[in-house]
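*** Fold description ***
***
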Amino acid sequence: MNTTSLYEYVAPFFHLAAQSLQQLRDRLTVEVMLGEVSGILDMMRHQVLDPNSSFPHSYDCIHLSNIPDHIGGPLNLLLFAMPCLKYTPAATVTANCLRNTPAFKDVDPFHCEYLATSDKNVISKLMRTSVLEVAGVAEHKASVARFQIMLLNETETI
């Protein structure tokens, strides 16, 4: 294939993506909301947006891209997104740090800046989560902070 334009490079990808989405048909639903992310997540959690909606109110995975860069780091992510997860060990919230990545050598100073602690055990106990390993691409200085809900049985204390 002798391509001469950007369109010719990307068109096959979008064509295949469109075919895949077409096969999903009734199994895929997209809901678009306009609003401030912390408020929307809180309203979703308490089912006050549209209680008669067929959309789910809890999720297996929530990815917020780099929204936490603009709303105070992972604290809002933990306070508002974590309660919207299903109560299963596999449920996760992920976010990217893109805005000020060069300011942090790794995830520990990042957590220290935004959560006032870099100790993963303290974060786990305070937020009832487990901090998963951070995947990063050193060349691009892009990191992904992943948090997973931590299930405690009723006899455990934090």
Observations:
- Strands lie at 61-63, 92-97, 129-131, 135-137, 142-149.
